[in-house]
Amino acid sequence: MVGPRVAGLLLWVACALWLVGCAQPPQVPAGEEDAWNGRIALQVEGQASQSFSAIFELRGNAQTGGLALISPLGSRIAQLEWKDGHAQLTSAQESRTSDSLDALLQDVTGTRIPVAALFAWLKGVQTTVPGWRADLSALEQGRLVAHRDDPAPQATLRIALTR
C-alpha cells in the first residue's frame, strides 16, 4: 500500500509530465521575421585575389528582407532591401534598383552569393546549390562556412553569428 505522501508525489509527477507533453515551442508572433547578425567574410581566389569582410544584419527571407553591411569601424557600407522581385541598393556612393538581388549583392561583395540558400543554411537546412557546398556542422556554435568551387574563381564564405 502506498502512503499519502508518496501518492501525492506520484500525482504531482504525473500532472507535471502531462503538462510537459502538452507544451509547444514558442511561436513566432505574426509580423516578426527571422533575423541574424554577426560578421561575414568572403575570400575569392584567382589571379586577382580579393576579400571582403563586414559586420552584417540580415532579416527576412529570400523573397522579402534586408541586409545591412557595416565596416569594422561602424560606418554603413551598403543597405540592401528587397521585396516582390525588386531589390534596392543604397550606399554612400549610389542608390539603385534591380530585379536581381544576387546581382546587387555581387556588386557589393565582388562575387555572387546564393541568397536563397544562405537563408536556408542559417536555419540549419542543407540546401544544394550548384557549385557550392556548405558546412553547417558548427552552426550551433554560430559559425557557417560555404565554399564555391564552380564557376571559377573559387570562393569561401565565412559567417560568425553574434549570440
Give a nutshell description of this structure.
The chain is 22% helix and 38% strand. The protein has 163 residues and is an alpha+beta fold.
Structural class: alpha+beta
Looking at this structure, what is the CATH superfamily?
A: Lipoprotein localisation LolA/LolB/LppX
Approximately how much beta-strand content do the residues carry? 35-45%
CATH class: Mainly Beta
Task: Tell me the major beta sheet.
Answer: 9 strands, antiparallel
Number-wise, the strands total 9
Mean pLDDT, all residues = 84
User: What is the percent of helical residues?
Assistant: 10-25%
Radius of gyration: 22 Å
Tally of individual helices: 3
Shape annotation: globular
What CATH architecture do you see?
Answer: Clam
**Element string (H = helix, E = strand):** HEEEEEEHHEEE
List low-confidence stretches. 6-30
How is the CATH topology named? Answer: outer membrane lipoprotein receptor (LolB), chain A
| Strand line-up across the major sheet | 6-5-4-3-2-1-9-8-7
State the end-to-end CA separation. 53 Å
Q: How many separate domains make up the residues?
A: 1
